[in-house]
Amino acid sequence: MNPSVLTTVAGGVAKITLNRPEKRNALDRAVIAALISALRSCADDAAVRLVQFTGAGNAFCAGADLTEMQAQADASEAANLADAEQLAAMLALLDSMPKPTLARVNGDGYGGALGLLAACDVVVAVDAAKFAFTEVRLGIIPAVISPFVLGKIGESAARRYFLSAETLTAATLKELGLIHEVVAADQLDAVCARITEALLMGAPRALAEAKTLIRDMARTSAPNRAAASSEAAARLARLRVQAEAREGFSAFFAKRKAGWRQD
User: Fold this and answer.
1) Based on the domain organization, do 43 and 12 belong to the same domain?
2) Which of 34, 114, 199, 222 would disulfide-bridge 2, Cβ 3.0–4.6 Å?
């Protein structure tokens, strides 16, 4: 186990903690490799119903480890590509996780940290946290995180904040769609617990299928909506005859908790 990434599982919730408080939880190669391993483990573990991300200490994540990045300036383009592809692989795993993901944002987040937030399903942040896409001030661009971030904040906001690198508040990122809830620090755990409880009420397979549905339908253009709706109807019909749906309806009408509930 990489001590820079800690994972615990309890009550169906896997809590993944970036554990480099002395480096403001910056992402280096070892951390990203450990995150890839942790995400794969969570995806394959039937005991895990939800994945929560957070950071140790006062920061969520400072983005890329700048000391490591500076050293990479003398490396080959191929070596730099390998590093970038490793980050892309980690974000892809997080984005495609078949289980709900919740970011518990306990402090500031910069650069790559915003990619983590964009790849999570639900994001709750403390009101004092600050954020920025700082890459252009270092002579680079937010390339790897861009597909995930643009899917949340859109082109207009990216045109401003990718270029200006202005500091953003949690409230501003909520307005842009990257954060769902902004709370006082002493309310962070309570709000995350409430959302976790709501997510765990969903049926495991249905949650996975709902996430796939969102990804598939989010970019459907107007001329293709009728065909997409018809295709989605087939997905619904397939799920209706599965054991999970039978249990869900049976529990509802019997006024009892469904079998997948652990509370």
Assistant:
1) yes
2) 34
Q: Is residue 113 part of a domain?
A: yes
Q: What is the pLDDT of residues 15-51, one digit of tens each?
A: 999 999 999 999 999 999 999 999 999 999 999 999 9
The range of the structural domain enclosing residue 85 comes to 5-199
Instruction: Look up the pTM and report it.
Output: 0.92
The sheet with strand 122-126 has its strands ordered as: 5-10, 13-18, 50-55, 101-105, 122-126, 181-183
- DSSP per residue, the chain: --TTEEEEEETTEEEEEE--GGGTT-B-HHHHHHHHHHHHHHHH-TT--EEEEEESTTEEE--B-HHHHHHHTTS-HHHHHHHHHHHHHHHHHHHT-SS-EEEEE-SEEETHHHHHHHHSSEEEEETT-EEE--GGGGT---TTTHHHHHHHHHHHHHHHHHHH---EEHHHHHHHTS-SEEE-GGGHHHHHHHHHHHHHTS-HHHHHHHHHHHHHHTT--GGGHHHHHHHHHHHHHHHHTSHHHHHHHHHHHHTS--TT---
